[in-house]
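worker-03 picked up job from queue 'complexes'. Input manifest follows; two sequence lines, order preserved.
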Amino acid sequence: MIRGRGDDRAPARGRLTRRTLVAAAAAGATAAAVGRLWRGGAALGAAALSRDTAVMAPSYVIRSLDPGHTLEPLGEMICHAAYDALVTLNGEDLSSPRPHVATSWTVTGGGRLYTFTLRRDIRFASGNPLTSADVKWSFERVVNLKSNPAFFLDNVAAVTAPDPYTVVLRLRDPQPSIIPILSNGALGIVDSKAAAAQGADAGPDASSRDHAEGYLNSHSLGSGAYILESHTPNQEVVLVRNPRHWRGAPSIARVVIKNIPEASTQALGLERGDLDIATGLGLANAQTLARVPSVTVKSSLIAASFVMMVNMDPELSGSLANPKIIQAIRYGLDYDGILKIAGPGAVRMAGVIPNDLAGALNPREAVKTDRDRAKALVRESGVASPHGRMNYASDQTSFGIQYPILAQKLQADLAAVGITVDLNGLPGAVALGEYRAAKAPALFGGYVADYPDATDFLVYLPGRLVGKRLRWPATASAAAGELAHWGDQAEQEPDARARVALLQKVQRRLLEIGPYIPLFTPALPWGYRADLRGVTFNSVWGTDFFAVRRT
Amino acid sequence: MNLAVFIGRRVLLLPAMLVGITLLTFVLSHAVPADPVAANLGEQAAANPEVVAAFRHQWGLDRPLPQQYLIYVWRLVHGDMGTSISTHQAVATDLGQDLPATVELAFAAMLVSLAVGIPLGILAGVRRDTVVDQISRGGSLIGVSMPVFWLGLVALVIFYAWLGWAPSAGQLSPRLSRPPAVTNFVVIDALLAGEGDVARDALSHLVLPALVLSAYSIGVLTRMMRGSMLDVLGEDYVRTARAKGLPGLRVTLRHAARNALLPVITIIGLSFGGLLSGAVITETVFAWPGLGSYAFRSATSLDFPAIMGVGIVVASVYVFANLLVDVAYAVADPRIRMG
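worker-03 finished. Artifact:
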């Protein structure tokens, strides 16, 4: 029927027509379908996850899943699951590395020659046997790629493989910490034949000739308990159990690691059972979840040191660099209040070595808040109005600690003893850049262990990594030179007890002459479903999925 | 001017616009006083000049800035948007993965906004100063002023944690695998793969974030449509239509609403662009792996090729949305001529 534009004959208002009925029915059906779909979807999502699948939401930063390039905690965790290293750690115990691919090792040549005997029953997921040639190739690739983890093997002069199941590391200088270093996921052993077929190269020109990172970002070539099934950048990583694994197949068949950036969303997922493990909960959510019976909430000490620092160049830090003012800052801070901001589990730190590593000072040695003494030190300094600027990353939250809140607390504490600190909140990358360029006048932050050994924290010494960034060279004074020398001795000391004593001596001296105000060793608030067993978290490679099982 | 000529001219202007956008994005992203080395290399690696040099060389950061820009544009002209420093994938591949998720979310939010905002605006205009009008005013005010971040969390707590009606955050339930990627639109890919369960699950995950994301645009559209309706309802031709004895609904929808839509069309176009580029917070709360999350991560890690890619895509979406608005104007009101 052709209808003209002016043909506006229409049913009278309010009359029930066939069209109205059909429209109403269609709308009703659509609403019902949408409702059903939504509820159905919710049921699907909230349904108990397959018992042999574990879903984890960590703090999600992955720069690479190639052991030759990775360094960040999540990359290390995935590499730890997919690649076996020579040595390993037992859950959260960072103090005693134990044999893994290497069954034993001997140290000779004045502490410079490490000879490892390898297990003979390990095969890669590809079926290729793991031999010393793979170890040599993997380590040489890490060194020659000149990427993030290369520094782990800075002191290794040569790797040799005298027979298929013996590997020898020749060090430039004695370094007992090489054993814990070797537990890192980045030093997992790669199937050299399979990797070479994917464009990997371990030669001296590997940094330009190796083209395997793209492949290794979405596939694994290791012998670990899990195989990397898929990696969708910024979204999720899926690991599936390796049926050939030499310790037997792990209990959990599939591990899904999801990127859930918002802490509250993680908490809701954990509470509802859509997540099994969540390590990015934040303090407030962890406290709320502690009341949920189906969730176990833990607070794990992290091998990291939170320290306030002052640049030793007075042109940058002004009167803050005055030694008496640095001492005044130490006495002026309200450490109990700071610990409340750090959250449950965090521990007051007396030196710069975290409390969970051998060599840390006893927290009882830590400076106690004494505002009168702080004010007296300010007067002794001769500085009329101590004043300076402190940088901090305004967008950063680490281990549940919000940097802006901690910055305000430090500022308020120092104001109470007559020290004025202007806060300079910067985006994380900018704050990091200023610090690394040695341009930060004063700052605070957490240095997280690269490897589970106290000697990693010698970076604070004059002339070393952090010292240089605070413009504090070993040549700054005779005392600084002596301290740097003690640090070298501690690093090379083969006897564990003597090393601990040296490390403690170094820290006490560091606090006398250095620009550091130790705050605390942080703890990570995290949680997991109560039906899981064997879940641990350490700051080297996070959770060991091989140990996880469901009751 | 003929509509086809108008569109042709706008399309021809696109390349020049894109070059302008690349230049602006390049200058702005390099004006940030931070170094990608700091954002991408660890403490120890960043202290090793050899490692830093290898990193700068790998990503072309050791070249002078003008040269870096020219190389980028040259590659872009040849269809290469570069490689992301963070993901080590081609930026085009990253965008191909993440953009569909945002388009899916923005499209769903737009549908909700239109389905709710336009009728509610019409109703509020027709029933001016009645309870309906007051409710729509209050609702719009809430939608416009409520922070999306807070609204998203509250919605999750109520519909997911308490009532259990909505599924968990994310695009799919954790135990489901993504369907084989064809279009990267999960729902479509699942249907193409014949995985009805996955499609249903993906759709159910879309509902809550789409509702939350649409709150702002529902508020804006409702108020715009109401105001526009009030203007139009006082026009002579509406009075004439009523005088002819036409039914009220017909006058409202055919005579008043259609004309009242004209100024609203502009808002719809801009809102869609805004939904695409502004979904970052909703994506964060709902762990939605879209363009917003990609943009945020790229910016924080100073991933220049990715930042450039996002800039080009978002700007292109705005340009395209504006073009569509102009065309829609002409279609909605034939009296409008392009010139």
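worker-03 released lock.
Residues 39 and 301 of chain B are 5 Å apart (CA to CA).
Chain B touches chain A through 71 residues (CB under 8 Å).
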